[in-house]
Amino acid sequence: MADIRNNFVGIKSPNPFWLASAPPTDKAYNVERAFKAGWGGVVWKTLGEEGPPVVNVNGPRYGAIWGADRRLLGLNNIELITDRDLYTNLREMKEVKKNWPDRAVVASIMVPCEEQAWKAILPLVEETEVDGIELNFGCPHGMSERRMGSAVGQVPEYIEMVVRWCKQYTRMPVITKLTPNITDIRHPARAAKRGGTDAVSLINTISSIVSVDLDSFSPNPSIGGKGSHGGYCGPAVKPIALNMVAEIARDAETYGLPISGIGGVTTWRDAAEFLALGAGNVQVCTAAMTYGFKIVEEMITGLCDWMDEKGHRTLDDITGRAVQNVTDWQYLNLNYIAKAHIDQDACIKCGRCHIACEDTSHQAITNMVDGVRHFEVMEEECVGCNLCVNVCPVENCITLDALPAGQLDQRTGKVVDPSYANWTQHPNNPMSREAAE
Amino acid sequence: MDRLGNGIEAGRLAPAEYEANFADLHPRLDRHEALVASDRCYFCYDAPCMTACPTAIDIPLFIRQISTGNPLGSAKTIFDQNILGGMCARVCPTETLCEQVCVRNTAEDRPVEIGKLQRYATDIAMETNRQFYQRAVSTGKTVAIVGAGPAGLAAAHRLARHGHSVVIFDAREKAGGLNEYGIATYKAVDDFAAREVDYVTAIGGIEIRNGQALGRDFSLSDLSTQYDGVFLGMGLAGVNGLGVEGEDLQGVDDAVDFIAVLRQTADKSLVPIGRRVIVIGGGMTAIDAAIQAKLLGAEEVTICYRRGKENMNASTYEQDLATANGVIIRHWLAPKKIVGEDGRVAGIEVEYTAMRDGRLVGTGEAGVIAADQIMKAIGQTFSASGLGALQFERGKIMVDVEGRTSVEGIWAGGDCIGTGEDLTVSAVAQGRDAAESINRALMAAAQPAMAVA
C-alpha cells in the first residue's frame, strides 16, 4: 500500500495535497471543511500588514473560459489578499492548527518591501504556531500596483533581499512563491535560493484578460464597464507551470531546491506529473473552487492506486523522476523516428485527422480508399508530428509508434539508425561544422 | 361520451387529455440544451451527416454556429440549402438519414441530435421572422408551379430569389401540401405548416392560388403558353385499395383522409374514432394513423402488416413510438375480407403470410380480428390527369437529373416523379434543384446573342 505522507521542508502532512493560498483558505470555516474533506494542508490566504485591511471590488472577481460541455478550463481573478483583519486571521489560524495538528498550515504573507514591515509581522505569525510561511511574490493584479506581489517577484534582487530578512527574523521554514510573469523563471528561483529560502512554490497566476463583453466592450470581469487584468489559473495553465517547475528542478544552481508545485492541478494525474518533474508536493485551488473540496478524495485514491500499480512506495520514489528526461531541444535524438498509426477498429471516421493533416500539415492521411471513407496513414508522407493523435476525439485510436532500428523510413528512404545523434552533431548545424573544422 | 363505447364515436376523452395527447412531440430545445447538444458535434471532415441529407445542409457548420451563440447564422446555413428546414427538422426521419450516419453512433450508439438542433435554430429565425434572402431584381420571367407542397414551395422560393415571378396553383384550400394535410398533428403543432408557407412566401414574388386543380380548372398547355416555365410538384392524390370483400362497408377509411381531417380539426374531441381500430400497412402513414387513433381514445389499435418488421417502411424509431403509445404491431398478416354487421365494420379476416421461395404467400391459416374501424395505409398512387404528352416511369413523371420532364419548358419534382422518395426533404431538394435548372434555362434564353467581332 502506497505511503503518501508528505514531508516538505520539515512540514508534515498526511498527503501531498495542499490548498493554495487563495479564496478557499480565507477563513477557519473553509479550512476546517477542507481538512474534514481530507486535504493534507493549506496555505492560508495571504496576510497583509497590520491596520485597515485591503478592500476588494464589490462586483465580479472572476472570469473564465470553458471547454466542451462548459467544463471550466481557465479561471481569472482580480481578488486581492485577505480583506479581513490581520488579528482575526491570526487567531483563526492558531485555533485551526491546534485542532488539526497533523495537517500543514502555512501562512502566506505579503507586506511592503521594507525590512521593518517583515520584521513586524513575522513574530505575529510565529506566535500562531503554524508550520511555515510562504512569501507571496506572485499576485499579478492589484497588489502589484502597490509594489507588492509580482512587482517583487519580477525583481530577483528584491526576492533575495526579502527572503534574507525572513530567514533572519523567523525560525519558520520559508517558501518563496514565484510569479510566472517573467521571461526566465530560473532567475527569481536562483535569487530565492541565494537569499536562503527553504523552498519555492510556483506558479502564481498569470496576467490575463479572460474575455471581452462584446455588447459593452468591457473586459471581463467587468466592474461597471471597466476591467483590469487578473491572474489566470486552472487546467489551462498547467503546461506553463510544469515547464517552470522543470526548469528550476534541472537548473544547476537550484537543483535540489524543494518545490511546491502549483498550477492547474485538477486530478491525481496532474499531481503525479508535478511530482515527477521535481515537486515535493502540490497546491490546488481552481479544482476546489470548481468542484468543491471533495475532489481531494479522487486525488488521494488515484495517486495511491497508481503508485500501488507501479510499485512506488513513497512520494520520494516519484519526486523528480522525470527531471533527468527534460532536456534542451538540441539534445533530442534526431535518429528517433515515429509514425502515426490508426486503429481501424477504434476509428469512428470523423475525418478530423485527415483534414488536420491535409490542410495544416503533411498530407499524410487518406480520406478515401477504393471509393470508401477510410482514414489511413501514408507512411511515406508521415513525419510523425502527432497532430492527428492530438485532434482525434477517440483516445488511443491513433498512436505514434517508433520505427525499430533497421527498418526503412518510407518517407526518407533511409534505414532507422540505432545510434543517438542530435542537432549539435548534425551537418546542417553551422555551429557543428565550425566545431568540426 | 363513453370512453369504451363501441362503434366510431367522437369525444372519447376529457378535453385536457386531447390537449396533452396532441401537444408537441418534441418540444424545442432550450438554449442550454442546445448548447449541450451542439457540444457533441465533432465538426467532421466531409461529414457523413451532410452527405446523408438529401438537401446537403452543412450540418457541422450550423451546429458549430449554435455552439458559438449564433443561432441566426445557423438558421441561414440551414435555409441556404433547405428553405423548409423548419418542417424537415420536425418530420425528417433523421434516424435513417443524418443521425444514422453520425460518427457518434460508432463509439457511443447515440448520435448528435441533429434534428432537434436544426429545429432550435430555425425556430429562432422563424419566430422573429428573420428573412435572409432578398428577391433579385425582377427578370420579367414568370413560372407556374402546380402544387404548393414542399417541392413547389422550395422551387418557388428559389425562383423568387432569382427574380422570377411565381404563381403556385394548388387544388386544396390551403397551401403546404402534405405538410399541411399529411403530417401527424403532434409533429407540427401551432399551425406550423401554414406559418412556414408565410415565412417562405414572405420573400415576395410568389402568388398562391388555392382551389385550382390541374385538369379541372386549368390545363398544362394553359400554363405552358402563359408562363415562361412550368414546375409540377403535385403529391399523390390516389390511395391504394385493399381489393378485398367488404371494403365499401361503413367504417373502412383511408388513413390519409383520417390524418388530414385530424390536422384540419382544431377541436380534436370532434374527430370520431373507433373503439377497436385496425390499420393496414407498414409505412409512416400507418404509424401516424395508428398513433393518432390511440391518442383520440381508441382502446385497441392494431397495425397489421403483411411482411416482417424488417420490411416495414416506417423507421424503427417510428415503430417504437407507436408501441410506446400502446399500438400493437402485428406482422405477417394479410387482409382477406372485411367482416360486416348491419353494413358496418365488425372485424377483419386476416391470413398469416410467409416468404416461400422468395415470394410472399398465404399460409392458409386465417382468423378474424374484431374491429369497429379499419384504416387503409397501403400506399398512395399518382393520378396522372391532365399531363398529356409527358413521359412516365413507374407510373410517375419521368425527369432527368435536373428535374426536366420529357417536354421542354416543364420541370417536375417531389412525390410525382419517378425517382420521388416519399420524403419531405427529398421533395425540397428536387424543387430547389429544378428551380436552379429553370433559372439557368430562362436566363440563357434571355441572354442577347454574343456579338461576334
TrEMBL record, chain A:
<feature type="domain" description="4Fe-4S ferredoxin-type">
    <location>
        <begin position="338"/>
        <end position="371"/>
    </location>
</feature>
<dbReference type="InterPro" id="IPR017896">
    <property type="entry name" value="4Fe4S_Fe-S-bd"/>
</dbReference>
<protein>
    <recommendedName>
        <fullName>dihydrouracil dehydrogenase (NAD(+))</fullName>
        <ecNumber>1.3.1.1</ecNumber>
    </recommendedName>
</protein>
<dbReference type="GO" id="GO:0051536">
    <property type="term" value="F:iron-sulfur cluster binding"/>
</dbReference>
<dbReference type="Pfam" id="PF01180">
    <property type="entry name" value="DHO_dh"/>
</dbReference>
<comment type="subunit">
    <text>Heterotetramer of 2 PreA and 2 PreT subunits.</text>
</comment>
<feature type="domain" description="4Fe-4S ferredoxin-type">
    <location>
        <begin position="373"/>
        <end position="403"/>
    </location>
</feature>
<dbReference type="InterPro" id="IPR005720">
    <property type="entry name" value="Dihydroorotate_DH_cat"/>
</dbReference>
<comment type="similarity">
    <text>Belongs to the dihydropyrimidine dehydrogenase family.</text>
</comment>
<dbReference type="GO" id="GO:0005737">
    <property type="term" value="C:cytoplasm"/>
</dbReference>
<comment type="function">
    <text>Involved in pyrimidine base degradation. Catalyzes physiologically the reduction of uracil to 5,6-dihydrouracil (DHU) by using NADH as a specific cosubstrate. It also catalyzes the reverse reaction and the reduction of thymine to 5,6-dihydrothymine (DHT).</text>
</comment>
<keyword id="KW-0411">Iron-sulfur</keyword>
<dbReference type="InterPro" id="IPR017900">
    <property type="entry name" value="4Fe4S_Fe_S_CS"/>
</dbReference>
<dbReference type="InterPro" id="IPR013785">
    <property type="entry name" value="Aldolase_TIM"/>
</dbReference>
<keyword id="KW-0408">Iron</keyword>
<keyword id="KW-0560">Oxidoreductase</keyword>
<dbReference type="Pfam" id="PF14697">
    <property type="entry name" value="Fer4_21"/>
</dbReference>
<dbReference type="GO" id="GO:0046872">
    <property type="term" value="F:metal ion binding"/>
</dbReference>
<keyword id="KW-0479">Metal-binding</keyword>
<dbReference type="GO" id="GO:0004159">
    <property type="term" value="F:dihydropyrimidine dehydrogenase (NAD+) activity"/>
</dbReference>
TrEMBL record, chain B:
<feature type="domain" description="4Fe-4S ferredoxin-type">
    <location>
        <begin position="32"/>
        <end position="62"/>
    </location>
</feature>
<dbReference type="GO" id="GO:0016491">
    <property type="term" value="F:oxidoreductase activity"/>
</dbReference>
<protein>
    <submittedName>
        <fullName>NAD(P)-dependent oxidoreductase</fullName>
    </submittedName>
</protein>
<dbReference type="Pfam" id="PF14691">
    <property type="entry name" value="Fer4_20"/>
</dbReference>
<dbReference type="InterPro" id="IPR023753">
    <property type="entry name" value="FAD/NAD-binding_dom"/>
</dbReference>
<dbReference type="InterPro" id="IPR036188">
    <property type="entry name" value="FAD/NAD-bd_sf"/>
</dbReference>
<dbReference type="InterPro" id="IPR017896">
    <property type="entry name" value="4Fe4S_Fe-S-bd"/>
</dbReference>
<dbReference type="InterPro" id="IPR028261">
    <property type="entry name" value="DPD_II"/>
</dbReference>
<dbReference type="InterPro" id="IPR009051">
    <property type="entry name" value="Helical_ferredxn"/>
</dbReference>
<dbReference type="GO" id="GO:0051536">
    <property type="term" value="F:iron-sulfur cluster binding"/>
</dbReference>
<dbReference type="Pfam" id="PF07992">
    <property type="entry name" value="Pyr_redox_2"/>
</dbReference>
